[in-house]
Amino acid sequence: MNSLSKKEIIDLLPHREPMLLIDELLNIKKLFSATAIVNVKKDSFFVQGHFPGQPVMPGVLIVEAFGQAAAALTAHGIDKATYENKLVFLMSVEKARFRNPVIPDCKLELNIEAIRSHGKVWKYKGDAFVDGKRMADAQWSATIVDRK
């Protein structure tokens, strides 16, 4: 399988609306890379207050979407028994840069790549684009922990 629908992502991640940000995961290369799609809409939960009359997707939610995409890529690639009853927690965010504002209605494409893994700790990098224009990029680390 080279892609995941929103329903399949819901089966992998604990996130639920309104915090489930990614709508699709495409071009999956097992445990290596993928492209996540975030449909940033005029009625997205963050738009009403950020900012009224001039809506912008908060940078912190772009980073969250990067993290969700990486968690889905990893969960999809590892043995289900290894991932069952686990959560993926963000450990660090490095070199996050926000180059252009993400304005609704748009399709935000997140190209993510797993840089390395060591046990339960993974490091990723990602680039965010709208219509081919770079909007943000970051590197981050995450870990897989037992669900309590």
Please outline what is shown here.
This protein is an alpha+beta fold.
Overall description:
This protein is an alpha+beta fold. The chain has a single domain (6-146), classed as Roll (Thiol Ester Dehydrase, Chain A), CATH 3.10.129.10. It has 3 helices and 6 strands. The model has no long low-confidence stretch (mean pLDDT 94).
Provide tags for this entry.
Thiol Ester Dehydrase, Chain A; six-stranded antiparallel β-sheet; alpha+beta; 20% helix; 43% strand; 148 residues; 3 helices
Present the secondary structure layout.
Layout: H1 6-12, E1 24-29, E2 33-40, H2 59-77, H3 80-83, E3 86-98, E4 106-118, E5 121-130, E6 133-146
Antiparallel strand pairs: 1-2, 2-4, 3-6, 4-5, 5-6
Mean pLDDT: 94
Which CATH class applies here? Answer: Alpha Beta
What structural class results from the helix and strand content?
A: alpha+beta
CATH architecture: Roll
Q: Which segments are poorly predicted (pLDDT under 50) over 5 or more consecutive residues?
A: none
Q: What's the end-to-end separation, in Å?
A: 30 Å
Radius of gyration from CA coordinates: 15 Å
Spell the H/E element sequence: HEEHHEEEE
Would you identify the CATH H-level superfamily?
A: Hotdog Thioesterase
State which percent range the strand residues make up: 35-45%
Q: Which range best describes the helical content: under 10%, 10-25%, 25-40%, 40-55%, 55-70% or over 70%?
A: 10-25%
Largest sheet data: 6 strands, antiparallel
Basic shape: globular
Q: What's the tally of helices?
A: 3
In order across it, which strands form the biggest sheet?
Answer: 1-2-4-5-6-3
Number of E strands? 6
Tally of discrete structural domains:
1
CATH topology: Thiol Ester Dehydrase, Chain A
